[in-house]
Amino acid sequence: MLLSSATINFFNYMFWALFVLYASRELDVTPGLLGAILGAASIGGVLGSMLTGRVGRGLGIGPTYIVGCLLFTAPLMLVPLAGGPQPQIVAMLFLAEFASGFGVMLLDISGMSISASLVPDRLRARVAGAHMLVNYGIRPLGSLAGGALGATIGLQPTLWIATVGAMAGLVWSVPSPIRRLHDLPDQVE
Predict the structure, then answer these.
(1) Does pLDDT of 187 surpass 80?
(2) Quick one: DSSP state of residue 76?
(3) Which of these, 69, 113, 119, 78, lies nearest to 98 by C-alpha position?
(4) pLDDT score of 121
């Protein structure tokens, strides 16, 4: 899970370093409309947080984590794909934000639930601290890489690299035992 989330965070922050610039300069999205589009992630996030328990009970907590990894990252492909008339561009960006916001809640809630049930109480603070160090430490590196790559090869190609790279975070979780974890185990002492 740590490798998955670190990979996703690196490439996601590469994406976010360029998103607003790409939407405003390349897609001609106005500031007010861009704010509404970004707000769609919050709506998706609230809905995702309300439904994660139900999804986890239906699919299993491990598969819910993996689906969350995919739903957080894959919809962002709609951003470099966006084109055509302005209403179509806005719809694609809105859908990307909404679905990604929904997915990140599936990922975060199920991932933290798995961690809370598998990590013994006496180690939980250390494990959480190590996890935060890696995940928060990788973010500025992703942003720097996004800015450097965007300046070198352009915004759209860099957004493609960022979205595909973030989706590659699944490589760490799919073959792991997480995908077979249906119910949370009893807490480890």
Answers:
(1) no
(2) G
(3) 78
(4) 87
Q: What confidence score (pLDDT) does residue 96 get?
A: 98
The answer for residues whose C-beta is within 8 angstroms of residue 87's C-beta and 6 or more apart is none
User: What residues does each domain of the chain span?
Assistant: 2-167
* Residue 43, helix vs strand vs coil: helix
CA dihedral 130, 131, 132, 138 (to 10 degrees): 100
* Fold annotation for 2-167: Growth Hormone; Chain: A; (1.20.1250)
Among 175, 4, 180, 19, which residue's Cα sits nearest to residue 103?
4
The mean pLDDT of 64-80, rounded to a whole number, is: 97
- Cα torsion at 103, 46, 78, 34 (round to 10°)? -150
Task: Summarize the confidence of residues 46-61 as an average pLDDT.
Answer: 96
